[in-house]
Amino acid sequence: MIPPDQWHPVDGLTLEPNAMKAATMSNENVVVAAGPGAGKTELLAQRADFLLRTGQCPYPRRILAVSFKVDAARNLRERVRRRSGSQLAARFDSFTFHAFAKRLIDNFRPALTGQNALNPDYRIDPDTRIAREQITFADLVPLALEIVEANAYARGGIRQTYRHVFLDEFQDCTTQQYRLIKAAFGQSPALLTAVGDTKQRIMVWAGALDGVLQTFAEDFSARPLPLYQNFRSAPRLRRMQNRMIAQMDPEAVSPAQDLAGDDGIIEVLHFDTEHDEAQAVADLIEGWLKESVAPSEIAILVRQQPHLVAAALGSELRGRGIPFRNEQESQDLAAEPAAALVFNFIRVVADDRQPDAYAELMRIANRLSASEEEASRFDSQLKRMLGTARAAVRDPAFEAEKPGAWSPLVHEFLQLVSRPVLTALLPGYQQGKRLDDVIEQALEAFGRELVVDGNAVQALRRLSEVEAIRFLTIHKCKGLEFEKVVVLGVEEQLFWGSNLTTIMSEFFVAISRAKHHLVLTHASYRKRPEGTATRWDEWRIPRRELLRFSQED
């Protein structure tokens, strides 16, 4: 424990003045308006370190962080662990809104009555609700809100648990989500820190509350602390962003002298067809990989329907043996420790050259609470089982190209690890069918990739966060950053709509993901994919209002 006035940002980092004030605020709520690259995640991580290390959040009180995306929640949790260490970070809870709502439902489920009453083993389904047995994702926040608004015991429990609350990407907060935060922490001793950027408000279609940052400032008497610096992007890219900011939010424009420099690359590439585009972009990616750019530092962004718009590029990359993954299908799964355990088991069994996967497998699967003798016996059993599974996979009779051949091995491994160890991986696994659903989804994802080429190692590379190029929608990329970003299809047929403000916000999010190299493409012709039920215009027109921001004055 150190005195607050002796705390300094950890890891030798320097925070701009307003960020330092926000990180060390001890008695006020704060609303931080910050553009892309201003270090919002780092600010929250440093604030968590300040609160935990100085005792401003005393044991056993905890810090709650609520984000909108699984990736963002996980990134913040991991950054706090790196900054503060595992012991202090154990008191930092980082959830998505849905995960936080589910935690409230699980803890205070008996408070739900009437048509909203739920059985202890209720399930979550994407679409269908069944009385008492099953709810949808859309039900999570309303049910949690009902609990908090109607039950004083639940409110008291939440407020006793959390002394500090972080709200990330708060500009996308919906009316019901805001009501949940207000019901849980309004008129309470908890101190709230909300961060957001109205220029990145792209969830209007999902009900994002207009002017929520101002509403929060008024309702919670929050002190506004804007951040101005962009620490992510090279100067040339920052100047492009600044040209957009001048139109979207003139008061936030950076002085020209702060953006001086020639570092950074912006390319606008026109193609006749999507196949020409695919070949050229694949050439770029292949060149970047040969220059030792990590696959995880390369992102392909598409406004919508990446499985269609990027299909030709995916086919080209597949033909060159370059792993990629569509984040629409696997982003949330990548954050699940049970899925990681399944994938690491298959890695170890399928390939002898996986020391990191083996070490992680042994670490997670080991029963830390067992006696030394029990742990040693289990270690021997696990190693024997892995040896047997490896031998089975290498047997000529093993049909390695068929997903069904791997399922019995995975389930045998999970049975050996045991249910208690699996449920201990994540609190959410201890209730309902989530653990079983995640295991099933992991096997389905592996099977989906395996049928591409019948190669288990390549299938896992495509599912990897480290070894695969990432295809993301703009809505999925928020909060992330990459060395190389390709925005496919800057065309009227993709960036469509009458609300230019919304379109510019989405485009701003996309271009501001790039740290050094930004590529914008558009094609004159995109052939209608087979089986496409939605509207698809084959002849395309570039969205010139957006592309012109790439041009220096």
Question: Could you describe the 3D structure shown?
Answer:
With 553 residues, the protein is of the alpha/beta class. Helix content is 47%, strand content 15%. The protein has 23 helices and 14 strands. A 6-stranded parallel β-sheet has the order 3-2-6-7-1-8, with helices on both faces. The protein has a 6-stranded parallel β-sheet with strand order 9-14-13-10-12-11. It has a two-stranded parallel sheet with strand order 4-5. Helix 2 packs across helix 3. The longest helix has 23 residues, at 372-394.
Helix and strand layout, with pairings?
Elements: H1 17-24, E1 30-33, H2 40-53, E2 62-67, H3 70-84, H4 86-89, E3 92-96, H5 97-108, E4 118-125, E5 132-136, H6 137-150, H7 152-161, E6 162-167, H8 175-185, E7 191-196, H9 212-219, E8 223-224, H10 235-248, E9 265-273, H11 274-290, E10 298-302, H12 306-309, H13 311-319, E11 324-326, H14 327-334, H15 337-350, H16 355-365, H17 372-394, H18 403-417, H19 419-423, H20 434-453, H21 456-463, E12 469-473, E13 482-487, H22 500-511, E14 514-525, H23 544-547
Parallel strand pairs: 1-7, 1-8, 2-3, 2-6, 4-5, 6-7, 9-14, 10-12, 10-13, 11-12, 13-14
